[in-house]
Write a structure and sequence with these properties.
single chain, about 550 residues, alpha+beta, Muramoyl-pentapeptide Carboxypeptidase, domain 1, 8-stranded mixed beta barrel, 4-stranded antiparallel beta sheet, 17 strands
Length: about 550
């Protein structure tokens, strides 16, 4: 994909070559020989522009062909000086940090060094370098800039979008004379990304102003208590806006300050009880530069997805334990979810919701049968009966049911995989009364659960990997609303009361994005929320994103 992007960018200049101005008399552009020398010296490597997913030999060959078609004339120079397009590109690269990118990746310092040098070799080097950095910049904006070889494909690669029509994007640029607008349009246009972009600038300003002082540890602070750390806490909350500017000196932990702390706790997915204990104090003391890095990581994640999020979609944020339904970015439904335990991590991927299953059976996965069902039967021979789980001789639909007492549960062990264990529909069914299917290789789906009490918890990682939803009937009505025969909540309840399994197909499939976002901004209020990195994926992504060098590490790791 990245190679395709790069070639498309180079094709952009094939068009520009027909409109490049002729150098004025008396001023010398780089000679044919100067450009040829650069192009024949493996420019992708010699200029330090080798990057992930791009074959340097193929790029070099395309560069030579491109300049040959332009009669070995520069693409970026006008009257032997960097032209308006070069100025616009440089300005974009200099400000690439606004999108959480690193200007050093685009050779900004070297470009500035070459900018005012007039010898032919420097001019040729500048022209080819500008061509290469444009290719890298657009590839980074369209697909993300982290080194894929440093990303665990099970955790990250599946999140990358493979349907972006890069060729169409670049062809659209061929007919515009505003390259600044073209480059600006490479960024995701949706609110989640733009909201983070705004907050990145805000938190960087806070960093430049010095951030906040560390609040010392000590006893838990409860409402109406006095504590010498209150002035530091007040100052900290004022900086990030939870406490509006006030000259009030708090001698005690008063109600107005308690409410500010509760607001802060909600911003960090802490129990909003207003009590300043160890967890709240730890969150208050997170350095501003660490929050800046978290914002950058999550901007990178959004670059992996479609850059426009039109139409009806469902998003599940694993780290935020939340589901959102939206049409054209207009939030329409939200609810809490339960995700996989640390040792049953819910994967990140994009799917397509196809049908709803009411009163589902639950076919017990092999791993659960071995690790949980067999030990439970050894302790309690009535375990299967008490949980409405039946056992069948095989996995075929017509496999006969067998009596659990005919199995020696003390020695069966892994051989239980020969059998199919199926829990019947009912109030105790592990999938609850309804599940939502979007076929995928991970065998992940959304479903109801009888364990409703778990939704009262703030951190909700309790499942075996699938996602339990807090308002299953509301979600059912929402996804079926566009059907020719939509169902309201009473109709769904009637089907459930019938106790028979029923499949309801969606007339139109709904994209569903299973995401891992440790920072989010709220569309309605603009508030920013920081979520715990429950699976430790921020650290893995940071390694791939911030360790990137001009000459990719991947070359040496493969």
């Amino acid at each position: 994909m990245r190679l395709l992007i790069f070639f498309c960018i180079l094709s952009f200049f094939t068009f520009l070559s027909f409109v490049s101005p002729v150098p004025a008399a008396g001023l010398q552009s780089p000679s044919h020989q100067a450009l040829a020398d650069i192009l024949n010296s493996q420019p992708t490597i010699s200029l330090g522009m080798m990057t992930v997913g791009i074959d340097p030999d193929a790029v070099d060959k395309t560069l030579v062909s491109l300049y040959d078609e332009n009669d070995m004339q520069p693409l970026w120079l006008e009257n032997n000086q960097p032209g308006s397009r070069a100025h616009d590109l440089l300005r974009t690269l200099q400000h690439s940090d606004l999108d959480g990118l690193n200007p050093d990746d685009y050779k900004v310092a070297e470009i500035l060094t070459l900018w005012h040098q007039n010898d032919e070799t420097s001019r040729a080097r500048l022209d080819v370098l500008l061509t290469l950095v444009l290719g890298r910049y657009v590839a980074d904006m369209r697909e993300g800039s982290a080194d894929p070889c440093l990303l665990d494909p099970k955790l990250f690669a599946a999140a990358r979008d493979q349907e972006v029509d890069i060729l169409q994007v670049v062809n659209g640029a061929l007919y515009t004379d505003n390259i600044s607008a073209y480059l600006q349009n490479q960024a995701p246009a949706h609110f989640p990304y733009q909201g983070l972009r705004k907050e990145l600038a805000h938190f960087r300003r806070l960093s430049r102003l010095g951030g906040w002082d560390t609040i010392p540890g000590g006893k838990t602070i409860k409402p109406n208590m006095s504590d010498p750390r209150l002035p530091l806490i007040v100052h900290r909350l004022k900086i990030t806006g939870e406490l509006q500017d006030s000259t009030t000196y708090f001698q005690r932990y008063e109600p107005v300050l308690v409410e500010a702390v509760k607001k802060f706790q909600r911003h960090f997915l802490l129990e909003p009880d207003g009590i300043i204990g160890k967890k709240t104090l730890t969150a208050l003391n997170i350095p501003v530069d660490e929050l800046v890095r978290k914002i950058i990581l999550n901007m990178e994640r959004w670059r992996w997805l479609p850059h426009r999020l039109d139409g009806k979609r469902i998003f599940v944020n694993i780290a935020g334990f939340r589901l959102f339904g939206a049409t054209d970015e207009q939030m329409e439904i939200t609810m809490p979810v339960i995700v996989g335990r640390v040792y049953h991590k819910t994967p990140v991927f994009t799917g397509s919701l196809r049908y709803v299953e009411v009163n589902p059976y639950w076919n017990v996965p092999d791993s659960i049968a071995v690790k949980e069902i067999v030990p439970s039967m050894q302790k309690d021979p009535n375990y299967l009966k008490n949980h409405s789980i039946r056992i069948f001789k095989g996995w075929a639909e017509d496999a006969p049911e067998i009596d659990p007492t005919n199995i020696n549960w003390k020695i069966i062990g892994k051989k239980i995989k020969r059998y199919r264990l199926r829990q019947d529909p009912g109030p105790e069914n592990s999938l609850g009364r309804i599940k939502f299917i979007f076929p995928n290789t991970n065998n992940i789906y959304l479903h109801d659960t009888p364990a409703r009490q778990l939704f009262k918890r703030t951190i909700r990682s309790f499942s075996h990997g699938c996602i339990r939803v807090g308002k299953p009937l509301d979600l059912g009505v929402y996804v079926l609303k566009e059907n020719k025969k939509p169902l309201d909540i009473d109709q769904l309840r009637k089907i459930i009361a019938g106790k028979k399994r029923k499949i309801i197909l969606l007339d139109k499939r709904i994209p569903i994005h299973i995401l891992y976002r440790t920072v989010r901004t709220a569309p309605a209020t603009g508030e920013i929320f920081f979520y715990p990195d429950i699976y430790g994926r921020d650290a893995l992504l940071a390694r791939a994103l911030f360790a990137r060098k001009p000459l990719s590490l991947c070359r040496y790791l493969q």
